[in-house]
Amino acid sequence: MPKNRNTFSSLAAWRRRALSRAVHRGWRWVQESGAVTAEHPGRLRFGRIGAGTRLAFPQGTVFGEPWIELGAHCVIGEQVTLTAGLMPDLDLGSEPILTLGDGVVLGRGSHVVADTKVTIGSDTYCGPYVYITSTNHSYDDPHEPVGRQWPRMEPVAIGPGCWIGTGAVILPGATLGRNVVVAAGAVVRGEVPDHAVVAGAPARVVRSWDPEKGWQPPLRTPAPVPIPSGVTPEQLLALAEPGETSGPSGD
Known about the structure:
Strand content: 25-35%
Radius of gyration: 24 Å
Strand order of the largest sheet: 2-5-8-11-16-19-22-23-24
Shape: globular
Number of strands: 24
Largest sheet: 9 strands, mixed
Structural class: alpha/beta
Oligomer: single chain
Order of helices and strands: HEEEEEEEEEEEEEEEEEEEEEEEEH
């Protein structure tokens, strides 16, 4: 290959790498600048936003924020929708409509649609694309398009410490207790007791905690082993490497 062609090819590759680095640096700057926090709320004026809470950029649809209260240290992923009321610019009264406790995590692309009261307890973690709504379409009149019939609304309450898997749907009127696990893709309605695991569509209890017998049916995975004191993060990473069998001390 002629020397000038090699030089041109190397220059083009260098330009592509430089452009790629510039684009990534620019996007990181946009993400940092566009994130919403208590100190930098941007155009959003929530009823409350706690210290350490962050809404990643880009945000999804957000309206009715004066009636949305976010606790401290919440993590709201990209493209998460948070709405209070049927549409923007409504007067919803003096009480909050949508409330997130401290430490709530909403995964990327999730939707929380609160046309009437929705409460998510502290330390509840939601995977990506979870859908929580207090409103459902009605179809009573068989002659009228469903979209034109007035929706039904029921409050939703999710207790503290829950884990809601990817793609789960929480329907109007649902009440989840403390430390409930919702399997990915489950569709939840009605009441779920404390310390239960639900799965399916419609969701049903597939495992629950008994104070005397423990989890019933029993867990199929071994109980977690506490990390010994003095073990460093580097040693844990080494143990996770394939083929690594030695203990933290290398014995």
